[in-house]
Design a protein that fits this description.
The protein is α/β, with parallel strands linked by helices. The chain has one domain: 3-Layer(aba) Sandwich (Rossmann fold). Helix content is 38%, strand content 24%. Strands 3-2-1-4-5-7-6 form a 7-stranded mixed sheet, sandwiched between helices. Strand 1, helix 2 and strand 2 form a beta-alpha-beta unit. The structure holds S-adenosylmethionine. S-adenosylmethionine binds next to strand 2 and helix 7.
C-alpha cells in the first residue's frame, strides 16, 4: 500500500460526496443489469472469499445467489471460484451491505440472507459498526419475501447474544428452531474451533 503523500491535500467534502454518489450510481446500474426481471435471490453479506456461497450455489443450482463484500481482492477470488466451476447463477459484487440494499431494483426480493462470521467489533464503543443492527434488519425485511429466512453464524459469544436479543425483540423477524440449511466451511469457519448459529424468519 502506498503511504499517503503529506503534500497531497485530502479530498474536499464535495469531492468526497460526489465520489460516494458516483459509486452508488454505478452499483445501481450493475444491479439493474444483473437483475433485469423480478426475482427472489439468496444473498450473502460479508461473503469474504466466497467459500460458503460457492458451495451453496453448487448444491442449489435453481437459486440465484449474490455475495457481497467490501474487499476487492476477496470478491476477485470469489468470482474466480464461481467462474471456474461454471456457476452462472452465482455472482459476487464489491459492495457495502447497506449500499447494496439501496441499489437493488425494487422487484428484487431477498429469499434467503446469510451472514457468516461478521466482524464482531468487540469493543463497546465500536458496536455501532456491527452489521447486525435493528434498523438494518428492518431494511432487510423491507426487501425480503414474506417467507424469507435470515441465517446468522458467529464464533463470538457476545455478538451471538447481541443478535439473538435484537432478533427476539424485532418486529420483523422471529427466531425459529429450523436447522442450518447447508454446511460448507467458510474461510473464517475453518479457523474457528466453535461457533453458534441462528435461523430466523420474517414475521
Ligand atoms: C470476518 S470476515 C468473514 C468472511 C466470510 N463470511 C467467512 O466466514 O469467511 C467478515 C467479512 O465481512 C466483510 N464486511 C464487513 N463489513 C461489511 C459491510 N458493511 N458490507 C459488506 N461486507 C462487509 C469484510 O470485508 C470481511 O470480508
Amino acid at each position: 500500500m502506498t503511504a499517503p503523500n503529506p503534500e497531497t491535500p485530502p479530498p474536499s467534502l464535495p469531492d468526497y460526496l460526489r465520489h460516494i454518489q458516483e459509486r452508488q450510481a454505478a452499483l445501481r446500474e450493475t444491479c439493474a443489469k444483473l437483475f433485469p426481471e423480478p426475482i427472489a435471490i439468496t444473498l450473502e453479506l460479508g461473503c469474504g472469499h466466497g467459500h460458503y456461497l460457492t458451495g451453496y450455489a453448487q448444491a442449489y443450482p435453481q437459486e440465484t445467489c449474490l455475495g457481497v463484500d467490501l474487499v476487492t481482492k476477496r470478491i476477485a477470488k470469489a468470482s474466480a471460484k464461481a467462474e471456474k466451476r461454471g456457476l452462472a447463477h452465482l455472482r459476487f459484487l464489491k459492495a457495502e451491505a447497506r449500499e447494496l440494499l439501496e441499489a437493488l431494483p425494487e422487484p428484487v426480493r431477498l429469499e434467503k440472507i446469510f451472514m457468516l462470521f461478521p466482524d464482531p467489533w468487540p469493543k463497546k464503543r465500536h458496536h455501532k459498526n456491527r452489521m447486525v443492527q435493528p434498523g438494518f434488519l428492518a431494511d432487510l425485511a423491507q426487501h425480503a419475501t414474506p417467507e424469507a429466512r435470515f441465517f446468522f453464524r458467529t464464533d463470538h459469544e457476545e455478538y451471538f447474544e447481541w443478535t439473538r436479543e435484537i432478533l427476539t425483540e424485532h418486529p420483523d423477524w422471529e427466531i425459529t428452531d429450523e436447522p442450518w440449511p447447508f454446511e460448507e466451511r467458510s474461510f473464517f469457519q475453518d479457523l474457528m474451533d466453535d461457533w453458534q448459529s441462528l435461523v430466523s424468519k420474517r414475521r
